[in-house]
Design goal:
Its EC number is 1.2.99.2. Helices cover 31% and strands 16% of the residues. It has 160 residues and is of the alpha+beta class. It has two domains: 76 residues, Beta-grasp domain (Ubiquitin-like (UB roll), Roll), CATH 3.10.20; 66 residues, Orthogonal Bundle (DNA polymerase, domain 1). Strands 2-1-5-3-4 form a five-stranded mixed sheet, with helices on one face. Strand 3 and strand 4 form a beta hairpin. Helix 2 packs across helix 5 and helix 3 packs across helix 5. It starts with a strand and ends in a 7-residue tail after the last helix. Bound molecules: FE2/S2 (inorganic) cluster (2 copies). The site of one FE2/S2 (inorganic) cluster has 10 residues, from loops.
């Protein structure tokens, strides 16, 4: 299969990569760039475990072709912490105990992060809507919602 060259910025670093037309963004991230924080759950667009940001918007990386991301900026869970410090959303999940097995957590955090970027003070209904594509088998969602509310209270939450 013929590959094409794409250039994407991943967590702030520009990368030029040869990708097959059927290569998904998820496989590119996990297998070519070793960014395994993004999880492979259903691999079919149903669970949200693979959620990353493409140009700031949450995207299911398992059903997004890598070639469609040419020229885009991709942010994964590995791109949130800075200089060894957790991002505020990560910190809020930690404090509230918004995870159990943790498999859904990277995707949950990316969806929540995107919500707070566009809506710094969401209602509970807006939080639940924003994570409605992210399935969690463990927590019952209550602590996840509490974590997003907590993250929203950090006054210095800033856009990146
Ligand atoms: S792995 Fe992508 S939605 Fe489940
Ligand atoms: S914490 Fe286990 S699936 Fe959400």
């Amino acid at each position: 299969m013929r590959c094409e060259l794409i250039t994407i910025k991943v967590n702030g670093e520009e990368r030029t990569l040869a990708v097959a037309p059927n290569r998904t963004l998820l496989n590119l991230l996990r297998e070519d760039l070793n960014l395994t924080g993004t999880k492979q759950g259903c691999d079919d667009g149903d669970c949200g475990a693979c959620t990353v940001l493409v140009d700031g918007r949450p995207v299911l990386a398992c059903i997004k072709l890598a070639a469609q991301c040419d020229g885009c900026e991709v942010t994964t869970i590995e791109g949130l912490a800075r200089e060894g410090r957790l991002d505020r959303v990560q910190e809020a999940f930690w404090h509230e105990g918004g995870m159990q097995c943790g498999f859904c957590t990277p995707g949950m955090i990316m969806s929540s992060y995107a919500l707070l970027q566009r809506n710094p003070h969401p209602t509970e209904a807006e939080i639940r809507q924003a994570i409605s594509n992210n399935l969690c088998r463990c927590t019952g969602y209550t602590k996840i919602v509490a974590a997003v509310k907590r993250a929203a209270t950090f006054a210095e939450f800033t856009q990146r």
